[in-house]
Write a structure and sequence with these properties.
The protein has helices spanning 4-15, 34-45, 48-53, 56-71, 82-99, 128-137, 156-169, 183-187, 208-227, 244-258, 262-271, 276-285, 289-298, 303-310, and strands at 76-80, 106-110, 145-149, 172-177, 190-193. With 313 residues, the protein is of the alpha/beta class. Strands 2-1-3-4-5 form a 5-stranded parallel beta sheet, sandwiched between helices. Helix 8 links the parallel strand 4 and strand 5. Helix 5 (82-99) packs parallel to helix 9 and helix 12 (276-285) packs across helix 13 (289-298). The longest helix has 20 residues, at 208-227.
Length: 313
């Protein structure tokens, strides 16, 4: 049971965090009209990209290291609690339809399990042991990348995930927080601290801190996938056509990449079982579906490299 002294110590810790700071100039925000509150909030949000920009060198180093591990068969694993955990799960869940990754390649762990996505699980974020158990459940290896996410940078679940991944398994570790000199960044090989300042509502880190975390996670997953050959230029050539909208998008991507007529696009997609990247290669490389598949395999899935190889076939 937590004592009054323990709570006093935690309150003292929170008082030192920028993300928890009280802003007296906003203490009567509830008296303002809705438009004025919206303007203030919009102005606050506009400061976030600049805060992310200041950390681009650290973000870049983390992405390059992540891409190297994943190119060798490693996985990208996010671990966080509350909003931070939900953002990790969101980013992970969007990779299969966007980049045709297997669901096991990019994984989101949230303290308390899947149910915590929609309802708080009391105490889950306070357990380093729970994070270690969740990672062990994934059979973590040294080839993997673990990204601990915590706005405060002090959440035990996120810190525990990074510490366990690094010390026990030798996995690459990244710590993403929104406070300077955080315990999370210190525990990770790559610390990314995007300091966005105090929130509009005191301590509500789903606001600017959450926006900053979303922007950084967008970069980590998207640029890593670009490095892995999941795109051709700015086209999502590994898109998984799992619904009508994505099937239409697949055809548009092939058209944009090749300039081919609709009939040729349909024939190419039919021959390659709907694989956009393969279809593009059959058209631009002038090869059949089987050859396209072989070329992409020997090129590590990179379409540009496969196109170069097709010229020698």
């Amino acid at each position: 049971m937590t004592s009054i002294e323990d709570y006093g110590e935690l309150r003292a810790q929170l008082a030192t965090l920028t993300t928890e700071a009280f802003r007296p100039e906003l203490s009567e925000i509830d008296r303002l009209d809705t438009l004025e509150i919206a303007r203030i909030m919009n102005g606050e949000d506009a400061t976030v990209p600049a805060a992310v920009a200041e950390r681009l060198p650290a973000i870049t180093a983390a992405i390059d290291a992540t891409a190297e591990r994943m190119a060798g068969g490693g996985r990208l694993i996010y671990a966080g609690a509350g909003t931070a955990g939900r953002l990790g799960v969101l980013d992970a869940s969007e990779c299969p339809p966007t980049f045709n990754t297997d669901p096991s390649e990019v994984v989101g762990l949230i303290a308390g399990g899947p149910g915590a996505m929609v309802e708080a699980v009391e105490g889950a974020e306070d357990s380093k042991e729970l994070a270690a158990a969740d990672l062990d459940g994934l059979r973590l290896t040294a080839a993997d990348v673990v990204v601990g996410i915590s706005a405060s940078g002090r959440t035990p679940y996120a810190i525990g995930a990074v510490e366990h991944a690094r010390a026990r398994h030798g996995a690459l570790t990244i710590g993403l927080s929104c406070n300077a000199d955080s315990a999370l960044a210190a525990a990770a090989e790559h610390g990314i601290e995007v300091v966005v300042g105090p929130e509009l509502l005191t301590g509500s880190t789903r606001l600017k801190a959450g926006t900053a975390q979303k922007l950084v996670l967008n970069m980590i997953s998207t640029i890593t996938m670009i490095r892995l050959g999941k795109t051709y230029g700015n086209l999502m050539v590994d898109v998984r056509a799992s619904n009508e909208k994505l099937r239409a998008r697949s055809r548009r991507i092939v058209a944009l990449a090749t300039g081919a007529a609709d009939e040729e696009i349909e024939a190419a997609l039919a021959a390659t079982d709907g694989e956009v990247k393969n279809a593009i290669l059959t058209i631009l490389g002038g090869v059949d579906a089987a050859t396209a598949a072989d070329l992409l395999t020997t090129s590590g899935g990179h379409l540009r490299a496969a196109l170069e190889r097709s010229r020698t076939v």
